[in-house]
Amino acid sequence: MYGWLWSHLPGGRVGRPVAAVVLLLAVVALLFLVVFPWVEPHLPFTDVTVNQGG
Amino acid sequence: MSVDDSGTALADDQPPAPSRAARRVPPPLSPGRRVVRTVGEILITLGVVLLLFSVYQLFWTNVSADLATQQVTDQIRNDWQFGQHGTSAGAPGSAAAPQTFNPGQGFALLHIPRLGTGWVRPIVEGVALDDLRKGVGHYPETATPGEIGNFAVAGHRATNGEPFRALDLLRPGDPVIVETADSWFVYTVDNTRIVAPTHVSVLLPVPDQPGVKPTKAIITLTTCNPRWASYQRMIVTGTLVETRPKSQGPPAALGSGG
User: Fold this and answer.
1) Å between A24 CA and nearest CA of chain B
2) Which residues lie closer than 8 Å to B88 by C-beta, 6 or more apart?
3) Angstroms from A14 CA to nearest CA on chain B
4) Is B60 within 8 Å of A32 when comparing Cβ atoms?
5) pLDDT for A24-42, tens place per residue?
6) Cβ of residue B233 closer than 8 Å to a chain A Cβ
7) Hey, which residues of B are catalytic here?
């Protein structure tokens, strides 16, 4: 998987590691800004109110 | 032939590469090894994602919540200073109509000296996840600060700034102070109890007594229990003991840290 990804990244000797870092940062940003905030309410740490729905 | 020799011969069934350029290209993997390698890579990736989620939950939500808390606190103090009073609940017993606030609006400051010297968090209207990120949330429909009835707020015990992390330290008699635009309302803790998450009658004007007309002003703090599992709720209740106009200075109960 990562081998395939690496061989399909653009750029040469210098560009390819840069592209890899950019891709990694993009994935982490997507996780922190979209995926994790979406997952969070489904976990019990944030249930602090009393309500009918439990 | 030794074991080493046969192993090497199996793994290296290609003829030796003649040049450096050719050697740089690895031999193609057999389908079986390709599958095992991909599954391994996916598992490692999932592990890293879970680690990142712990960082998000244990560190990042607190950092961003602390920023939001500071921002709302500053905004509330700013509003008070420049006269845009978000609230002016009447003194207990006054006939003033109940004040309403906009969802997400910060309108008061909560001081609990037991939780730390100078411990202060903004109280915002609403108990949705977005509201609780900014401080503690006021249950809409419950009383306003100092009003006869039940002024109920909720706060996180873990993650997102965790204002009520140490709420279990509160003891009967501890002061819980609400600061509004023009008044200080000093409540003292009566008791702490653990209830089911659906036990909404703790929010009634007289807790657990539906239909009964309240005669005193109380405060209710709710948070999750146990801290990381939250299949119950911790409820702290207190009674108003002092109402003090801002002009008379902070109440003695606030201590020096306020």
Assistant:
1) 12
2) B96, B99, B180, B181, B182
3) 17
4) yes
5) 999 999 999 999 999 988 8
6) yes
7) 156, 224, 233
Model confidence at B22, in pLDDT bands (50, 70, 90)?
A: low
Match domain B58-254 to its CATH number in 3.20.20.70, 2.40.260.10, 2.40.50.140, 2.10.50.10. Answer: 2.40.260.10
The pTM score is 0.77
- Whether B193 has its CB under 8 Å from any CB of chain A: the answer is no
Instruction: With respect to residue A7, please indicate whether it lies within any of the assigned structural domains.
Output: yes
Which contiguous run of DSSP H or E holds residue B12?
A: none
- Window 8-37 of B: residues touching A by CB (8 A cutoff) are 37
Domain boundaries, chain B: 58-254
Provide the phi-psi class of B232: left if phi over 0, else alpha when psi is between -120 and 50, else beta. beta
Give the Cα separation of B56 and B229 in Å (integer): 18
pLDDT in tens, B92-129: 444 444 567 888 889 999 999 999 888 999 999 999 88
Chain B environment of A24 (Cβ under 8 Å):
none
